[in-house]
Amino acid sequence: MKLLILGATGRVGKEITASALADGHLVTVLVRQPDNLDIDSANLTILQGDACAEQDVHKAVQGADAIISALGTDGGSVLTVNMRFMLDAMKQHGIKRIITIGTAGILDSSEHPGLLRFEAPDSRRSSTRAAEEHRKAWELLAGSGLDWTIVCPTYLPLGDRTGVYRYQQDRLPEGGMSISVADTADFAYRQLLDDAQVGKRVGIAY
Q: CA-to-CA distance for 140 and 198, rounded, in angstroms?
């Protein structure tokens, strides 16, 4: 499979990239600083560019079978800017499958029906800026007509990949407090071969 991975120099993105290469996939990454990607493989194509530049995004998606985005919010509008360009490029090039890393904040609140977790009055967030950006990206995906899945982890410490965790559509598993970077990457990567979560936000935690 030919994959485009965004956010490959980040914690989750690096893990996903390594897994895809280990399984023999042909992987293209779009990164601003190639030196920050300490992975070497004959199956890896590194494109230097900006995920918020329309021309770079359209160039990166060409030939891809699926896209995994582990882009962060970066304190601004990178998710929504990229998503608009990405969805347009996917439609232009006939690509249907996209998996993204979101946040547990955009899952439904269990205690406050009708609200998202970050909107709930008992939310511990001091700022909702990142969650708002993730929500806007979700809304763009939801209206795209493409086969999307948003993986929504809670607190993300470092840790080993165990492959053992809980997940639930639209909500965080009850009592879930954390999920490692490696296991978040593991679950997101597994969605390439599983269509059970297409069109869903998926909460993941131990």
A: 15
